[in-house]
Design a protein that fits this description.
Elements lengths: L1 E2 L10 E15 L2 H13 L4 H25 L3 E13 L2 E13 L1
Parallel strand pairs: 1-3
Antiparallel strand pairs: 2-4, 3-4
């Protein structure tokens, strides 16, 4: 599956637009990781626990978006974007979305 943030794919012709595809996940770290992150926040530096959580969430949301595109018979997803929002303290939703297309 080809995924791009652009509206077209160089050297390929889009022959059919199949529609919006998306994948999302909501992630939270367990309380021990929250405590470590809070302590690290006091002294500065990267909050590795949250970096890891968001990286995992991005991967999962992309995989779910691809699965939806596969169901439609897509060859690619164009104009792919991420959106994130806090759902509660220490938890975040990450949404990947784009347009599923057939290539010729």
């Amino acid at each position: 599956m080809l995924i791009t943030t652009s509206e077209r794919i160089e050297g390929k012709k889009i022959v059919e637009t199949l529609g919006l595809v998306k994948g999302n996940t909501v992630r939270a770290k367990w309380i021990g990781k929250d405590i470590l992150a809070a302590l690290r926040n006091l002294v500065g530096g990267e909050l590795r626990e949250y970096t890891e959580m968001l990286s995992e969430a991005r991967d999962e949301s992309i995989n779910r978006m691809i699965k939806e595109a596969d169901k439609l018979g897509a060859d690619a997803v164009i104009s792919m974007r991420f959106m994130t929002s806090q759902t509660m303290s220490g938890a975040a939703e990450l949404l990947a979305y784009g347009t599923a297309v057939k290539l010729g």
